[in-house]
Structure formats: structure tokens, C-alpha cells
Amino acid sequence: MPPPARPGWIDRVNADRAEDLPRATTGDGLGEQVLRLAGSPALADRAWASEQYDRYVRGDTVLSAPEGVGLVRLDAGTGRGAALAVTGNPRFALLNPYLGAQLALAEGVRRVAAAGARPRAALACLDAGHPDAAAAAWQRDEMRLGLVDAADRLGLTLPDACGHLHDHAGGAALHPTPVAGTLGILDDVATRTPGGFAHPGDAVVLLGRTGAELSGSTWAHTVHGHLGGMPPFPDPAAEAALAGVLVDAAGTGILSSARALAAGGLAQALVEAALRHDLGVSLTLPEGDPTVTLFSESPARALVSVSGQHYDALRRSCAAAGVPVTRLGEVLEQPALEVLGLFTLDLADLRAAWGSPLRAAMEG
């Protein structure tokens, strides 16, 4: 049997780039978009769901929602632990299922490494439309190939990738969704790096390179109702370098916090890091388009906070690994997200936007 053919409509979708969409022209407009994304179905707080069960069974849960990764203690004597991140982006996979699968696995690597765990292995589930549909069969095969290639390049063991091929609703196939569960090992959970800002005065630093990659982004979907273009291109070498820096930094204890960048880009990482302990942040965006800086979903990036005494050590580690470093600002005691020259958002407003949608929908 010949392999499934690439559907003809994919070229039309890829030509409709989000990078060509209108962008906010004022600081207030950018701030309003940060609020909209924080409260969107894709990014809003999932606390209601995680509260439906006991996350702390037997008392060995070390990190859980909303840290961005789960971490459990495996051995009380040694402190050895396992981190797990479950990731997947159906918008990226619709635009390019091969790249979408790679990006899902890369995000998992980034998340477990941000906690200080060394990525080791992954499992995956490939969700697509009906197996009799030619497009679904092609998407399934492309996602499987993307996962295998990404696991090989990222040095992960991938023992299995199951499939679910009947995802239809209202007569239409749902977006193909590669769901990756990535496992990392931490020799001692006491050395973990948490995901929220912890100390006023710490430097806030972006690790990694930001490109003008808005297609398939939460910004494009939430602000413009748009899905088109090509997703960001994975960079396994950059992911591995970033993961190495984050894992080594956890081992030496130089980071106060670390958060992987993914859906929502830098803006959402700032929101979640600030809300974790209600500590604000003041920052100056680097030169360039602020929409790209805030909302691009380029891979291989993390937001970290670090004390002044450890900043030079972080820079040296990143320089040795070839990881770009951008110092953005500092953690504040005041409860505000302040982007100098553009906008200021109260954390209370951000928490209301981020924290209420799912709970309101489920509880009425």
C-alpha cells in the first residue's frame, strides 16, 4: 500500500502567515493582549482540574501545578526524584504534523530541565481524525516520524507512541495532536528549581533566541482567531544546550526560579512566574517589535531569575553552551507586571483573568 499523500489544502494554510497580521500599536494595546491571553482557554489556570484529586498521595509530591512540571520523590534516603511534563500543541501539528510532534517533545525536555531534572525518556500518544481519512493517515505518519526523529536528536528513549484515530466532532476531524510525556531524573529533589519568582531584587533573564515566529501561536489564535503559516522550527541542538544549562544550574543552586517558555511566549511565562508568589516584575524589552518579543513561541527558551551574586556564573555557563542571555529587569515586591515605556498590569487583574475562566465554566 502506498504511503498516504500529503493533503493539498496544507499549502494554502501554510501560505496564510500570522506574521502578516496587524499588531498592537500602543502600550495599552499590548497590555490588553497580555490579559486576554492569560484568560484564554489555552492558557488559563487549570487549578480546578488538579484540585479534583489528591496530588500529594503518600507525601512524595515535590512540585505540582502550577509549577509547569510534576516532580515526585522516588527514594527518601537519597532524595532521587522523577520529573514529568505532558505537552502537545494541536495548532502546530495542524500546520505541520512532523514539526508539531518535534515541538511537543522539545517542550517536554525544556519543562523537566527547567525543574533541574535531566531528560531521559518519553512516551507519546498521537491523536488524529478517522483512520479512513487520507489526511488523518498522513498526519499520523508524519507525527510518528517527527517523534522518532526528535527523540533521536534529543537523546531520549522513546519506547512507545500509541495512536487514537477517531477524533471527530460535529462531522469534522479535530486537529491532530501529538501528546508527549517526558520523563527527567533529578539526583536530589532538594536541588530542584521552582517555577515562580521568589526574591525581590533578583535579575529576570531570558535564555535563548527569540525569532519572529507567530504562526500557530496563542496570540494569533486568541487576538485574531487565526491559524495558518508554518510553526516555529525546532532546534534540537539549542534545546539540548539550554537543558544542559538549566540542569547544571540546578545542581549548583545558582537559579532562584526557572520557567520554560511555550504557549503564550514570554508574556505568559512572566504572568505565571509573577503570580506564583505574588511578586511583581519590572522589565525593559530588548530592541525590536514588542509583539514578537512578548508573544513569539520560538522554542529552546526559558525565563529565569537569579540573584546578583550568581548572575555572572549564569552568563559564563550560557556562554560556554552557546545559549543567548538577555537581562530583562528585576523581581519586585510590588504586585505589578511593569514593562517600562509600554504598560503596567496589576497582579490582581492578571490573577482574575488567569485564575477564573475554567472554575467559572465548571462551577457555573
Task: Write a structural description.
- There is one protein chain.
- The chain is an alpha+beta fold.
- The protein folds into two domains: 27-44 and 193-364, PurM-like C-terminal domain (Phosphoribosyl-aminoimidazole Synthetase, Chain A, domain 2, Alpha-Beta Complex), CATH 3.90.650; 60-191, 2-Layer Sandwich (60s Ribosomal Protein L30, Chain: A).
- It has helices spanning 9-15, 27-38, 47-50, 90-95, 97-114, 134-154, 218-224, 236-252, 265-277, 290-295, 308-321, 347-355, 357-363; strands at 61-63, 70-73, 81-87, 118-127, 161-164, 168-169, 172-173, 177-186, 203-207, 255-260, 280-283, 302-306, 325-332, 336-339, 343-346.
- A hairpin with a 3-residue loop joins strand 14 and strand 15.
Measure the end-to-end span: 51 Å
Q: What does the average pLDDT come to?
A: 93
Based on the coordinates given, report the CATH architecture of the largest domain: Alpha-Beta Complex
With strands numbered from the N-terminus, the spatial order across the biggest sheet is: 10-12-9-13-11-14-15
Structural class: alpha+beta
Tally the structural domains: 2
Number of discrete helical segments: 13
Label the overall shape: globular
User: Main sheet?
Assistant: 7 strands, mixed
The overall strand count is 15
CATH top-level class of the largest domain: Alpha Beta
- Rg, rounded, reads 20 Å
Query: Which topology of the largest domain does CATH recognise?
Result: Phosphoribosyl-aminoimidazole Synthetase, Chain A, domain 2
Strand content: 15-25%
Fraction of residues in H or I helices: 25-40%
> What name goes with the CATH superfamily of the largest domain?
PurM-like C-terminal domain
Order of helices and strands: HHHEEEHHEHEEEEEHHEHEHEHEEEHH
Poorly predicted spans: none
